[in-house]
Amino acid sequence: MKKMDISTILASAIHESKNQVGTLLYQLQGLKETLPSNNANESKVTMIEESLKKLNDEWVEYLYLYRLASNGYELHVDTFLLDEFLDDQVFALLASANAKHLDLSYHCEKSLTGTFDERLMTAVVGTAVYNALRFAKSKIEIHASIEKNFLVISVEDDGQGFKGTPEDEDTLNSNTGLGLYFAQLSANAHVCNEAEGYIKKEQSTSLGGAKLAIYLPQ
């Protein structure tokens, strides 16, 4: 029997697991619709639903990570209106923020446009926001702007921020320690006029907490 590469097996297993999570989310949505209003179990069901959504997003991240690391991902760049892109991200993640009683918002110029791979950046922003949910005290903000021919998308929170300790890595890494690596590979995949994308972890000047900035060449 032909020997299979372990990374291919893992990628296939992740894909199947993601499909199972999708099925569970669909069934859970049906269960929510059968619950009477103000049911005592509604908050518990919502918490389970948000955990499954986060798990589903992590599976997507792992699949992209595998393809990026193995040069098997084909970049699909297009030009997007950032106001619409960020509005979509906040809409998708707002329920998770509300479940933790955190404010989630975005800020950018209405006419700002940028060129990037929408699937990758959706996954990167989602990963950064989920991590910020673990540390924020009351609010998380997503910002977008142009700086020296780079589109900069940043996720900031009002948590403890960076103190220059080894534990800072946990602030931006997911539970498996791959969040920051995924963001870095996704940024690196964007190349324009020999300029390569990159990320920075900084202190938020407006909120005082952590800030993950993704720089994409334009």
The low-confidence parts are 166-176
* DSSP, total strands: 9
* Spatial ordering of strands, largest sheet: 2-4-5-9-8
What's the SSE pattern? HHEHEEHEEHHEEEE
Residues in β-strands, percent: 15-25%
The biggest beta sheet, please?
A: 5 strands, mixed
| Rg on CA atoms, Å | 18 Å
Mean pLDDT: 83
Approximately how much helix is present in the residues? 40-55%
What is the overall shape?
globular
**First-residue to last-residue Cα separation:** 48 Å
What class would the helix/strand composition place it in? alpha+beta
Number of helices: 6
Brief summary of the model shown:
With 218 residues, the protein is an alpha+beta fold.
Report what the structure shows:
This protein is an alpha+beta fold. The chain has 6 helices and 9 strands; from the N terminus they run ααβαββαββααββββ. It has helices at residues 6-34, 42-69, 82-99, 118-135, 168-172, 179-188, and strands at residues 77-81, 103-107, 113-117, 139-147, 150-157, 191-192, 195-196, 198-203, 210-217. Strands 2-4-5-9-8 form a 5-stranded mixed sheet. A two-stranded antiparallel sheet has the order 1-3. A hairpin with a 6-residue loop joins strand 8 (198-203) and strand 9. It is globular, with a radius of gyration of 18 Å. The chain starts with 5 loop residues before the first helix and ends with a strand. The relative contact order is 0.12. Mean pLDDT is 83; it is low at 166-176.
